[in-house]
Amino acid sequence: MKPAAPDGPPSPKLADFLCFAVYSANLAYGRAYKPILDKLGLTYTQYIAIVALWEQDDQTVSGLGEKLFLESNTLTPILKKLETMGYLTRRRDPQDERVVRVGLTEAGRRLREQGLNMTLVKQTGLPVEEFARLQKAVSRLRDNLIETMGSREA
């Protein structure tokens, strides 16, 4: 962006961009979650895949990808690694061989006991109510952007 002309409006600062605030908060979250995830031996994307399976076990890979906002070519290696680690199984759907279903193993279910209470609510410094409002607002922002982009592509 060009600097403002001496008689024009001031140039926006990086800190004024909501997209940068969301992006940099995501990076900070990643760094803050690292010690927690290291204890579980998981990456963040592996962790969210497991959490989604705790929420709904035995789902299709495509359904899981939609929940996680991940394309199949990104999700498949994550699931393969989690399968190798013994946390889940992948199998063809007997009703439709083109569909792959994924489900937790007993070891994957046991991870819940370790990982469920590992949150960063306290570390954010936000009161619980404000944390919940912020989470809902960011989710609404994401959903609105997706909806807007979807209507533009149609």
Automatic annotation (TrEMBL):
Primary subcellular site in the record, as a coarse category: cytoplasm
Classification via InterPro entries: HTH_MarR-typ, MarR/SlyA-like, Transc_reg_Sar_Rot_HTH, WH-like_DNA-bd_sf, WH_DNA-bd_sf
PROSITE patterns: HTH_MARR_2
The keyword Protein biosynthesis is annotated on this UniProt entry: no
Subcellular location: Cytoplasm
Gene3D superfamilies according to UniProt: Winged helix-like DNA-binding domain superfamily/Winged helix DNA-binding domain
A family per Pfam: Staph_reg_Sar_Rot
Source species, domain of life: Bacteria
Signal sequence, start to end: none
Positions of the HTH marR-type domain: 15-143
UniProt keywords, alphabetically: Cytoplasm, DNA-binding, Transcription, Transcription regulation
Designated name of the protein: MarR family winged helix-turn-helix transcriptional regulator
Species of the source: Flaviflagellibacter deserti
Lineage of the species this protein comes from: Bacteria, Pseudomonadati, Pseudomonadota, Alphaproteobacteria, Hyphomicrobiales
